[in-house]
């Protein structure tokens, strides 16, 4: 050691820990490094997003500005968005539209497109009509009556129709804008009538429009559009009538009508009644009846009845004169020997008691209704025609009720298709002999409804309803009854229509063969060529059977299914009612039956004879070849007509009919091809 060192001892230096200076240095360097790192990281994220993102174009169908919201990180460029692949929820909202939310899948393709269709909110419609109270239909759906306010309707194109009583229906295309916007429509309905002016000489004639009183002449009438029948009636003059074709808004002036002096009216009866009456050689009907006699000149009146001597005399009457006359006919008699057991049985001739037991009676040489009855025994009914100079023998041995029941035929039968047919025995009816057709004075009467006498003797079965589509398709699976203005005629329980007479007759033969019955109609190569009147197979009802079943009501003959007054008050049959105007064009004003076209069979009350739809729903084919009967012919018994012909008779009204002439039960039509308002029902002889 250096001695000098002892003079300079080592002195400790001041000690400062490194930590006292290091933080200050670090704090000076840390901020810019972190900032630089953050920028680098953000750059990497942005580049990563740009490199992995795909272009998605979102196209929206809407006429208002649309707000788009996507549950993802996106970079929008107009309607294009940069977005990473994946599945995202996209929401779109716009004023006037329902909010839309869908799921969009973004794939690895560079450019993709998604189209959004936004549903507009319903529009608000205000519909006003002149007059108010019109029924409003949108696409055939009734939405209310005018005035309608703020009616909510989805956007789109519709058919708007307005209907009001006595006005023409209005129809137009309706464009609903939607988007909660309001639209106003004011519609003036056009009147459905026209003015008809009519006067007469003499004045004061009662005016009947379609059978209803409408005023007295001279008059101006408001007549609804369509076909109508106008009639003038005056107490001392003959009725005058004319068919009118009315176009709404087009007035008609019928001018002054000179009425002819009224015929004299003779209430003619005979003893016995039922005599055939001719006036100047022209058949008028059977007694009792009312005869119209031209005034101021003589006429030859004749009455005849089988079994009685002809009566003839000359008559004349003044204008509008009324008279009553009863002619007593002289009988030609024949003897009938009745041998009856038991002896206590009562004998009635034409309903009049003639004693009990066996006896010999002198009776007019005309068909007589014989009834032999005794309590506890079945009544026997016979018909005999006495012959002058030749005694006839009638032997009757009554059977007990039990014996008679065993011998009786069934009161109804059920076909193989489930159709119910009721038994009818006209011979037991007071109207077994009746007059078909209608008087020339009857309103609506047509020229083919000539009065002529017929008699029904054979009992027969008649279907209670018309043949349905379901039943007819068992015969012809391809059958289609069609539809009218969107109203179906082809439902199972509606009557089968668009069926020709040949098809209806072929159906009857097919059903007969199915049940082992002898076919009524003769066929050759699938064509009906004639018929066998003795066969008991199924057939169409004869015109006489149809008329008797439809009109006979006890001892009277109905004019209409509901009675003798027109128009009907209640819904008794299916006719062209108020709801059918757009299909039929003409309607039975004020009548409502609830069906635009044909109804399911049996929808209305049955007649007194248990038959449905005889006077409505669809008209019906009957068996007979169409002819116009002779006014001077003899009484025909169980007539069936010619074996074949070009046209066949159609009876009864249908859903398309409304006029007084068509709704009468004596109305006749004809044809051969199928129609949308013509069907049929089946019949067969009981034995």
TrEMBL record:
InterPro entries the record matches: CTDL_fold, PEGA, Sulfatase_Mod_Factor_Kinase, SUMF_dom, SUMF_sf
Domain Sulfatase-modifying factor enzyme-like: from-to ranges: 433-684
Keywords tagged on the record: Membrane, Transmembrane, Transmembrane helix
Residue spans crossing the bilayer: 34-53
Stretch list, region Disordered: 1-22
GO terms, molecular function: formylglycine-generating oxidase activity
Domain PEGA: 124-191, 193-252, 265-329
Comp. bias (Polar residues): 1-11
Protein name as it appears in the record: PEGA domain-containing protein
Biological source species: Pseudohalioglobus sediminis
